[in-house]
Every structure is written in C-alpha cells, then in structure tokens.
Amino acid sequence: MAGYKTFTSAADMGPYVSRLILELPEKVRAEFVDKDGFSVYVERKDAETGEVVLAKEHHTDKQAFLSKGYVDVLSAYASDGEGNHKAEGSYIALELPEERLTKRIDGALTRGYIRAMSFRITQTKAIPAETPGEAPLVGMLFDIDTGDVCPDLAGWDLTGTGIFDDIDMNYGFFTPDLVAVNAARAARPLPPVEKVPLLVWLHGAGEGQEPYRTVMGNRVTALSSPDIQEKLGGAAYILAPSSPTYWMDSGSGEIADDNKSIYTKALKTLIDEFIEAHPNIDHERIYVGGLSNGGFMTMRLVADYPGFFAAGVPVCAPWVASLATDDEMESIAKTPLWFVQSADDPIVTADIHALADYGRLKKLGATDVHITCFDHIEDETGRYHDKFGQPQRYIGHFVWIPAYHDTIKAELDGTNVLMGGAPVTLWQWVGLHRLT
Hints:
There is one protein chain. The chain is elongated, with a radius of gyration of 24 Å. It is an alpha/beta fold. Helices cover about 15% and strands about 35% of the residues. The longest helix has 14 residues, at about 265-275. It contains nine helices and 21 strands.
C-alpha cells in the first residue's frame, strides 16, 4: 500500500479530481511512464452522512448518482508532488476525465452535495528502474489518501464563521497577495496597489451553508484569477458568504418569490465587519454581485443600502419587477448595475425579471444601467462538445458561465458597453467604478 494525492480543478460545471499524484518509493524517468500501466477505481460517499452514493437506477431520487466504478486514465507522466511534469520524479501523475465519478459536488439548483472520494490505483505494468540492472517497480497499490492539491483555492480561506445580527453564518474569502501583485506590476511597470476593492459575491440556491460548496460549486474561484483581479484594479478581496438556507428565504426556511429576505441585515453586518477587519479595503470600491438566488440578494442589498455599493452585477436574478415598490426601484436606481440574463432561461424568466427590472430603472432615469441578454448559453472554451461535435449547449440559467469567463460586453441592442468612450467587458466595467 502507498499514498496518493488528489488534484482538484474548478471547472465550469463544478470541481473535479482532474489528477492523481502517486507517491513512489524511488525516482522514475518520464519515458518509462505509461498511462496503460495503471487502473483507477473510485468510490464516492456523501461527505455529510458518510453513506455510499446510490446509483440512479436503484434510487427514485434523481439527484442520486453513481457511487463507484473505474475511471479512464487520459495520460501519465513523471511529476513532482504538485503534479508538475518532470523529466524524472518521485511521483507519477495520472490525468483523469471530467465525469460523474470524478466530480466532487453533485446536486441540483436547490442543493449541492459534497462527495467524499476514495481511490484505489493499481499498477498493471512494470516500470523499469532508473538505474540499469536494478529491479523494476511492479505490483504497486496506492490506496492511502494523503491530501489534496487545489491551485484554484490559493489565497482562499474557507473557515470564516460568525454570528451576524443574531444569525449564524459561514463564509469564504480571498485575500490578494499584494507583495506578489506589486512585484509583478513593478516589472511592467505599473504603480503599486495600495487600497484594494472588495467584491461581495453571492451564491445560488444550491451552494449555501458550507463555504467549500459556496466557492467551488460553480467556480467562484474565477473571481480570484489574475485576469479578473487585474480588471478589478490589480487586486481585490472576494467575500463569499454562505446562506444558512436560501437568500430568498423570507421566513419559511424555503425559497419565496416575494422579493424579501431574512438575511439582509445579517449580510450587511458581515460585510461591515469584514471591511473593518481589513483596513486596506477601499470604501469607495465595494462591489456586489451574485447568480440566481444571489442575483436576487444583490438587488435586495442595493435596494436597502443605496450609496454603499459602487456597482452591482445581478446574474439571472429572480427579483420580480412587478412586486417592487417605487421607493425600492428608485433606491436601486442609485447604484450602477449590469444585468446578465439569457432569453431561454426556464427558471428565472427574462420578461418578468431582468428585462422588466431594466425597463423600470430606465424609466426612472437610471443612466448607468446595462443588460446583456443572450439567446442561449454554450461553451466558449472549445473544451466541451455535444455528440455532434458542436459546442456544448447549457440550459439558459447557466448564464454565470460567460460571466466567469468575462466574455460579457454587449448592451441589449448588441452594441458594446462603453465607459469613458471605450468598450469594456463586465469586470472591466465593475473595476472602473467608485463612489463619488
């Protein structure tokens, strides 16, 4: 028996174990490593209950998924302990496909389930020794999990917790490495970052309660990527609270479509305390955004706290325009907003939500309000295809995918959003705003 590490990647549809890193008793050369020399078996359990996940065919719950099976090995190579390629190394890395058996979070729009995963990797072909004449490596079994490597979570702390306005709430947050950021900026050369903005990002209905689910469930880590960090001003804090139930909970413990929430004051208290604990946050650049349930909460916060947020990004937000009072919409109109929606969203319909909200705000004279409304959502990366080889098409509700890739730039009429006369993307637009 020997140890292995998992390597987790945040992908568009959630986190996957994309790599296994096998700990060897001695070094091996890259040319001796063969992907056909290993068999990978995995068993998944519910991380909260410890119960084995049932297969779909043996369960009436459509959210029960495959519990165990063999996974293909896409490639294998000599590596270091972080899974990086090496000409020779004391580790072997196995690349795995994105599929149900390698996915760390299952679930639906209203609940995500974290999966505990146990792998058993069996060596099926001998590996010649690095030194001629020495015995080859044969018959190795790797079944001891020694930890996880997840570069996407670099800089993130998922242990935040507290009581805010009498409500227990967990949260994750990203802290930018200003030493590294400013060293990179000095080489370009650019002025150093001193005061840093804060982006409050609010999850959808399925990613609440637990910060790992909140941050990894649908790739919130994209907001801490160098690209979006640069667009937000070179560096930015990200605060990702976890709702104890749903942001759209108005007191029943369930989702209510009434534009109310029991969490508004608690969220504002958490935000205020986070700002106070980080004195280098720029109070003139506090941004807020969120998807679906969190898009609603974005609207609720800017309605209740006008003049606090420098900009907001409601993504597929179920804020019902017809239920909002004139005072609420006038309050919302004071914050620059960029709505993101898809016309074919079957869950949060465009006509009674984003399009109607946008129309009311324009009638109120809001000048810095924009809406990008897609016809449909499909893969833009070239990684995912349907059975015909065409880009994978997603349900329209998954409009946060292009938001995380920052390919959003169009007004409702198809022209590019402009700021200062120059075309901008969504996150460039956000990063250029400050309170005046």
